[in-house]
Specification:
Number of strands: 10
Number of helices: 11
Shape: globular
Helix content: 40-55%
Strand content: 5-15%
Largest sheet: 5 strands, antiparallel
Order of helices and strands: EEEHEEHEHHHHEEEEHHHHH
């Protein structure tokens, strides 16, 4: 449904116009706002500060239901170490330099009053103005290549994060996306169009698949077995992933959703988004269904190759974290719920509910078929 929701959901309209591939305003001087968008949950403002420097300010909207909290000092220190390792791995040159490169972790910081006034918010410093969410489906070849390379970067960085156990002497924070889904499933978040979608989805899924969705969401919030929780980004997405126009490291906006848990949650979150885009394009839904053709399988394979530390991710799904397909299916449900609740009703949501039912019925397997 157009721009994918970022870590806190910011879906743009289903039929949003495609943004041109340019990622740096020509002739801009000083500090200037180059993009503004958002929903009732969150507003995003992107500013250009000269010398290829941009800031992304995320300000809570009226439907934002929780504080924008930073990770603990111990988790931040670990994130900085992971970022340093990512930077070191991609600091070489030559034909194979990109093979070890990951996305740099752009850690958010509390916005100064001069940036956000009294509204608060979190600001991220990155080298670009447009995310993969807008570049990937733009129809521009250069933008597509940047996006695919950024997704490979993302895969490598997620794997780096998942190599770190959650050992910070504190309880694991809840996974906010799964939490929103559980509140919606239970009816604890009656919110107009969100409640309308809940009734529709319950009818479309039927008792068996509604129970399956509920059980998967409950299980996703439980502490993982098999050695415990690992460090998770919490809600990685193409909307959080910002390529560098100069071809340097991509940046992954990181901080507000950081948690611990099963690595399948992070990887599945991105695969579920790409599955939704591919399915929407095939069914003529939203912006994806009305835009130019996009090779989404190649994009997903780049992500998987980066995560699996392979040159080619074809027929390697058996190496993925168990539960990845279920996590990807939950991501599809969360985005559908977020759109209805924070943007509003759209008739395409009926067909998205059918897509969710089909994916659930197949135990999430379509999300891994690339």
């Amino acid at each position: 449904m157009a721009d994918r929701p970022q870590a806190a959901p910011v879906p743009e309209p289903l039929h949003a116009p495609v943004v041109p591939a340019a990622v740096r305003p020509a002739g801009a001087a000083g500090s200037v706002t180059v993009r503004e968008y958002g929903t009732r949950y969150l507003r995003i403002s992107v500013r250009y500060h000269g010398d290829a420097r941009f800031s992304w300010l995320r300000v809570p909207g009226p439907a934002h239901d929780r504080p924008q909290t930073a990770p603990s000092p111990a988790a931040i220190a670990t994130l900085r170490r992971v970022d340093a390792a990512v930077a070191a791995a991609g600091s070489g040159s030559g034909p194979g330099a990109d093979a070890g490169r990951g996305a740099r972790l752009a850690l958010g910081e509390r916005a100064a009053a001069s940036e956000s006034g009294e509204r608060g918010g979190v600001v991220y410093r990155v080298p670009g103005a447009v995310s993969v969410a807008r570049l990937l489906p733009s129809g521009d070849d250069t933008a597509y290549r940047l996006s695919v390379r950024a997704l490979a970067d993302l895969g490598r960085t997620l794997r780096q994060l998942h190599d770190v156990p959650w050992e910070f002497g504190e309880p694991v924070p809840p996974h906010h996306g799964v939490g929103r889904l559980l509140a919606w499933i239970s009816g604890a978040a009656p919110d107009g169009d969100g409640a309308r979608l809940r009734a529709l989805a319950h009818d479309r899924l039927g008792a068996r698949l509604w129970t399956r969705l509920t059980e998967w969401a409950v299980a996703a919030q439980e502490p993982p077995g098999r050695g415990g929780a690992v460090l998770l980004h919490g809600a990685p997405s193409t909307g959080w992933l910002v390529p560098s126009p100069a071809g340097d490291h991509s940046a992954l906006l990181t901080g507000e959703e950081v948690t611990g848990g099963d690595p399948a949650l992070d990887l599945g979150w991105v695969l579920g988004e790409l599955h939704e885009l591919r399915s929407a394009a095939a069914r003529g839904l939203g912006a994806a269904g009305q835009g130019p053709p996009v090779d989404y399988p190649a994009a997903a394979r780049a992500l998987l190759a980066g995560y699996l530390r392979k040159e080619d991710a074809v027929e390697t799904t058996e190496a993925l974290p168990p539960g990845t397909a279920r996590a990807a299916t939950l991501r599809l449900a969360v985005h559908m719920r977020d759109f209805a609740s924070f943007v509003g009703w759209h008739e395409d949501l009926r067909r998205y509910a059918d897509l969710l039912a089909e994916t659930l019925d197949a135990d999430g397997a379509p999300t891994l078929r690339w």
